[in-house]
């Protein structure tokens, strides 16, 4: 009967309408306190940098993100009067740690996302316990950060690789803060018994000017890219600039080999852990012939080093990542997040933690702005 069918249709229609109504209602209900509800930007995003890292603001006039990095619609500002309008407010940890800067907690507009930045390792980071429940996003060198910011990366090469600098030494190391208790100091001391190591940097009274660094380390076949502490994903400019950009083969000490392999081809570096002893490592370095040495540079045919050293680039990346940033996230225990993920390889007081079983995170998906390797 037609009337029966109409009734069914009517009922179905009502259910659909009610469902739609509830669905829409969901968007009008208030979000719980502290959960960011980012505005949908019409005219672009405003990123407020509450204090400039290390206190030297860069030139932000003009559309720096578009002109320098091709990121459109991204206004970087240090003008604190824009707190109410800002889409994201950025806080660099060093100045919070030292007390030079304070969080404007009392003036925070409801639901405004705050982003915490550090590029230091947990061994040199303090005062996180009081920063719980404040930040929605983090930017660090860790791949599981909301905004992943490595010190460098390999990118497809646009022009032929420059020839390698001529070598007149075997191994070099630049070190500013030498502490006998660090694992890198112990490895260096043992290595130096077997092969000559040219030592530069403040620790040895031979500082290199910024412009001289790469041209100096490039004259040696190998560079000791030893991190000051061993932490999850903690790989710094010691690898990217001092070794790879300079044209020296990095001998790395830091996270496990598998971590480096997420960033570099496996044959682009030598890992201290590849050897049973430092003596074996020394023998490997001093005994290497030219043809074997050349194999460490195969990546240069198709890849080039790109350093991420300008804070403006790092801040512009917030805009390019913005559409993909998780909504509703709060780092309730920032300390636990930052100190976690190290597993047993985290450095305890007095040197290296015991190796073995160090937890590896899943790799970030390829693609995206800074993340593909
Ligand atoms: C800052 O950048 C703008 C635009 O690129 C330029 O015109 C200006 O001279 C720069 N100012 C300083 C102090 O370097
Ligand atoms: C900061 O922003 C306010 C509000 O837009 C503006 O009146 C002021 O001139 C700005 N200050 C600077 C130093 O740009
Ligand atoms: C160079 O060293 C490699 C690895 O030890 C060896 O296989 C190769 O024969 C050597 N080449 C020359 C030319 O000595």
From TrEMBL:
Gene3D superfamilies: Glycosyl transferase family 10, C-terminal domain (3.40.50.11660). It is a single-pass type II membrane protein; Single-pass membrane protein. It is found in: Golgi apparatus, Golgi stack membrane; Membrane. Its EC number is 2.4.1.-. Residues 361-373 have a biased composition (Low complexity). Residues 45-152 form the Fucosyltransferase N-terminal domain. Residues 342-373 are annotated as: Disordered. InterPro entries: Glyco_tran_10_C (IPR055270), Glyco_tran_10_N (IPR031481), Glyco_trans_10 (IPR001503), GT10-like_C_sf (IPR038577). One of its GO terms (biological process) is positive regulation of leukocyte adhesion to vascular endothelial cell. Residues 342-360 have a biased composition (Gly residues). Keywords: Glycoprotein, Glycosyltransferase, Golgi apparatus, Membrane, Signal-anchor, Transferase, Transmembrane, Transmembrane helix. Pfam families: Glyco_tran_10_N, Glyco_transf_10. One of its GO terms (molecular function) is alpha-(1->3)-fucosyltransferase activity. Residues 165-337 form the Fucosyltransferase C-terminal domain. The chain crosses the membrane at residues 6-29. Pathway: Protein modification; protein glycosylation. This is Fucosyltransferase. It comes from Ornithorhynchus anatinus (Duckbill platypus). The gene is FUT7.
């Amino acid at each position: 009967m037609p009337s029966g069918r109409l009734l069914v249709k009517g009922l179905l229609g009502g259910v659909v309408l009610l469902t739609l109504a509830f669905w829409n209602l969901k968007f009008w209900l208030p979000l719980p306190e502290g959960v960011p509800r980012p505005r949908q930007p019409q005219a672009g995003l405003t990123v407020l940098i509450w204090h400039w890292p290390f206190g030297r603001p860069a030139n932000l006039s003009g559309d720096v993100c578009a002109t320098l990095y091709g990121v459109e619609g991204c206004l970087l500002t240090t003008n604190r009067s824009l707190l109410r309008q800002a889409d994201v407010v950025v806080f660099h940890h060093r100045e919070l740690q030292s007390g030079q800067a304070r969080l404007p907690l009392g003036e925070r507009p409801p639901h405004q996302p705050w982003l915490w930045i550090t590029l230091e390792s947990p061994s040199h980071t303090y005062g996180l316990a009081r920063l719980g429940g404040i930040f929605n996003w983090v930017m660090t060198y860790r791949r599981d950060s909301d905004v992943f910011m490595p010190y460098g990366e390999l990118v497809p090469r646009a022009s032929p690789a420059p020839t390698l600098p001529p070598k007149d030494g075997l191994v070099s190391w630049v070190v500013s803060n030498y502490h006998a208790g660090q694992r890198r100091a112990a490895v260096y001391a043992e290595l130096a018994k077997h092969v000559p190591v040219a030592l530069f940097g403040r620790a040895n009274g031979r500082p290199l000017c910024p412009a001289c660094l790469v041209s100096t380390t490039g004259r040696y076949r190998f560079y000791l890219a030893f991190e000051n502490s061993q932490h999850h994903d903690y790989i710094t400019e010691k690898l990217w600039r001092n070794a790879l950009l300079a044209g020296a083969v990095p001998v790395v000490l830091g996270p496990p080999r598998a971590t480096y392999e997420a960033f570099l081809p496996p044959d682009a570096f030598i890992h201290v852990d590849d050897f049973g002893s430092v003596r074996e490592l020394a023998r490997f370095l001093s005994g290497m012939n030219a043809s074997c040495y050349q194999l460490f540079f195969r990546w240069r045919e198709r890849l080039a080093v790109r350093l991420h050293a300008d804070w403006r680039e790092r801040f512009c990346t917030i805009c390019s990542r913005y559409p993909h940033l998780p909504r509703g996230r709060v780092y309730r225990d920032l300390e636990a997040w930052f100190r976690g993920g190290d597993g047993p390889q985290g450095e305890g007081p007095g040197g290296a933690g015991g190796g073995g079983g160090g937890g590896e995170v899943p790799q970030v998906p390829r693609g995206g702005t800074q993340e593909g390797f």
